[in-house]
Design goal:
11 strands, three-stranded mixed beta sheet, Neutral endopeptidase, domain 2, four-stranded mixed beta sheet, alpha+beta, Collagenase (Catalytic Domain), 681 residues, 7% strand
Length: 681
């Protein structure tokens, strides 16, 4: 699944100066019966044996052009919008409650949202709220003080040079430790700074930085000069950075170091000062994800003028704040990142953007209200049944693998048995009592949230992992597998059509949410997840021979996706390998689980389609998506997920039961010779 941690939900505004009213439509009070398969979305003039993605979705694609404020629009977006209306209705009640006590969840949601909607006040303040940070940066007189300055900036949510934070120890997954990773870039990928094909982007980026510096008080000539220097500094960071493919290797990313060893690797930077300023507790050792990158900072800091370092940090403050400040800064940031990089024709309306921010900062508070009204108990019960069936099916597939030894099979089955399953919402809700929200300033409310989160994050270091914590909110349309927790998580909001439909036949639900469940389970055994044991520790539990056989099979999947193009953009089979393994595994596991149902055994057609055909049509439906050219170009370079068309057409090409269901023959476009198909789990 797309693994995005931005928590996008909807909230309605009360009347405030400069407030843009969101739509007045509200969800229907009566339950809408959604067809299991909407036949009008299909295009039966397309041969499913040649292009199944368009066979299942072509009329939907034609009826749903991309709205101007989106770079792509698909099933996930549809559910996002549907969920927005539900939450909008809930928050309307909250925001009209004038009796909400100070410090209550209702007061915090109301005041955060309304402050964000007060665009007149935000414009009047301009960038003045950044001045304390500019003054802090300007006071840097010596590079020896950089550790303290950077620690303070990072604690406030502003980036620069690297990333740091608490997370589980990959080889002792029960404990939280400090981690250091590469960072400091403002473009979307390391290669944007390095490859000749991205020269236009780099030029546009320098122009963008120049404009943003001008909008925050630097004259045009100086702004242009500073922007070029900032670009040069970020290029040095990019040259030291690992590629996205390299970062997929968890063994490579685990490098335990003592604080003394860390300090020796970067003597020019005082790490004690940094950790103290960032609010970290005492600790002796940490994981340095990219030791060469961290060591390389020494040379970069030594050889970069202090004035350029200060300009770079000032830029990172501006860059990280633009969407919360005046409309001129917000618009310029959108023009580069939204319009130029991703092809959006217009920015999303302010009410929706502030909804997303509110739900991001008060995610579980909003989520608690959402599930109380819109997540019936029977949904969770149905999901638990599905998960149980999928677990059984995956277990049987593991037992029957011809290429895996009994020794490795037993350990794989034990790991599967130890999977923790979370559905809908947390058993223990997040405590927001220490997060103060005021009606005065949207930017200050956001900063207080960052401080609140930083304190929570730092307080975890040196303590046991909280197994009850969720890393997505209930209103997030997504799902995830955590290798360190060995758990699969399905937030409430994804349990909607076309993924999950209580009124649909089993074939449709197994082709939709069943595949999603199988997908997340398979992540525990993809090229990264397989390296973690049942306790979440990075621990090689495979025999050497089985690991070699696994590598041979995954290499075939890499080859298949490397050969697939979407609008002239070649997919990176290594970058997308984990998700491609999970897609194929999810299909196989859910298919087997579906065969256990009475419906599958009865084999009765509905609307002229066999159960097998409905299973695969449902799978094609969940990936329906229209995307702009710029979005596809960015996706194949930066996203671990293949474009939607490939997730359908390329993955189904390795699914034997698909060939039977739609009579796929060698002359058809979907056909892959048996020896070319991937077969892993």
């Amino acid at each position: 699944m797309k693994l995005q941690h931005l928590l996008a939900m909807t909230i309605i505004c009360t009347l405030a100066s400069g407030c843009e009213e969101p739509p007045t439509e509200t969800p229907q009070s009566k339950k809408e019966i959604v067809p299991a398969i909407e036949l009008s979305n299909m295009d039966t003039t397309v041969n499913p044996a040649d292009d199944f993605f368009r066979y299942a979705n072509n009329n939907w694609l034609k009826k749903n052009p991309i709205p101007e404020e989106y770079s792509s629009f698909g099933a996930f977006t549809e559910i996002d919008q549907r969920t927005e209306l539900l939450i909008q209705d809930i928050i309307k009640e909250v925001s009209h409650d004038s009796s909400a006590l100070q410090g209550s969840i209702a007061q915090k949601i109301r005041d955060f949202y309304n402050a964000g909607m007060d665009s007149l006040a935000i414009d009047e303040r301009g960038y003045s709220e950044l001045q304390p940070y500019f003054d802090m940066i300007d006071s840097l007189d010596d590079k020896a003080e950089l550790g303290t300055l950077l620690g303070k900036l990072h604690a406030e949510g502003f980036g620069g040079f690297f990333n740091a934070g608490g997370s589980s120890d990959p080889k002792n997954a029960q404990m939280v430790i400090m981690h250091l990773y590469q960072g400091g870039l403002s473009l979307t990928d390391r290669d944007d700074y390095l490859v000749k094909e991205s020269k236009e982007m780099r030029d546009k980026y320098v122009e963008h930085v120049t404009k943003m510096l001008q909008l925050t008080g630097t004259d045009s000539i100086e702004a242009a000069k500073k922007a070029k220097n900032i670009m040069a500094l970020e290029t040095l960071l990019a040259k030291n950075s690992l590629s996205r493919v390299e970062m997929r290797d968890p063994d490579r990313m685990y490098n335990k170091r003592s604080r003394t060893e860390l300090q020796k690797s970067t003597p020019v930077f005082n790490w004690d000062d940094y950790f103290d300023a960032a609010g970290a507790p005492a600790f002796d050792s940490l994981n340095v994800g990219m030791p060469d990158f961290i060591a390389g900072l020494n040379k970069i800091i030594l050889n970069t003028d202090l004035s350029t370092i200060k300009d770079y940090l000032r830029w990172k403050v501006v860059h990280g704040s633009a969407s919360m400040l005046s409309s001129d800064l917000d618009a310029e940031s959108f023009n580069f990142y939204g319009r130029y990089l991703y092809g959006q024709e217009a920015q999303q309306p302010r009410w929706r953007r502030i909804l997303n921010a509110t739900s991001g900062c008060l995610g579980e508070a909003v989520g608690q209200l959402y599930v109380e009204k819109h997540f019936p108990a029977e949904y969770k019960e149905r999901m638990l049944t599905l998960v149980g069936n999928l677990r059984t099916a995956l277990g049987e597939r593991i037992k029957n693998l011809e290429w895996m030894s009994d020794e490795t099979k037993q350990k794989a089955l034990h790991k599967l048995d130890c999977f923790n399953v979370k559905i809908g919402y947390p058993d223990k809700w997040k405590d927001y009592s220490k997060y103060e929200v005021k009606p005065d300033s949207y930017f200050q409310n956001y900063l207080r949230f960052i401080r609140f989160e930083n304190e929570r994050d730092m307080a975890k270091i040196g303590k046991p992992v909280d197994k009850d914590e969720w890393f997505m909110t209930p209103q997030t349309v997504n799902a995830y597998y955590s290798p360190e927790m060995n758990e699969i998580v399905f937030p409430a909001a994804i349990l909607q059509p076309p993924f999950f439909n209580m009124d649909a036949d089993d074939a449709v639900n197994y082709g939709g949410i069943g595949v999603v469940i199988g997908h997340e389970m398979t992540h525990g055994f993809d090229d990264q997840g397989r390296k973690y044991d049942e306790k979440g520790n990075l621990n090689n539990w495979w025999t050497v021979e089985d690991a070699v056989k696994f590598g041979e099979r995954t290499a075939q999947l890499v080859k298949l996706f490397n050969e697939f193009q979407v609008r002239g953009n070649q997919i990176n089979g290594e970058l997308t390998l984990g998700e491609n393994i999970a897609d194929l595994g999810g299909l196989n596991v859910s298919w087997d689980a579906y065969q256990m149902t009475e419906e599958a055994k009865a084999n009765q057609s509905i609307d002229g389609f066999t159960p097998a055909q409905r299973f695969f049509i449902s799978y094609g439906t969940i990936w329906r998506n229209n995307s702009r050219d710029q979005f596809i170009e960015r996706q194949v370079k930066t996203d671990v997920h293949s474009p939607a068309e490939a997730r359908v057409n390329r993955t189904l090409g390795s699914m034997p039961h698909f060939y039977e269901a739609f009579d796929i023959r060698p002359e058809n476009g979907m056909y892959l010779a048996p020896e070319d198909r991937a077969n892993i789990w």
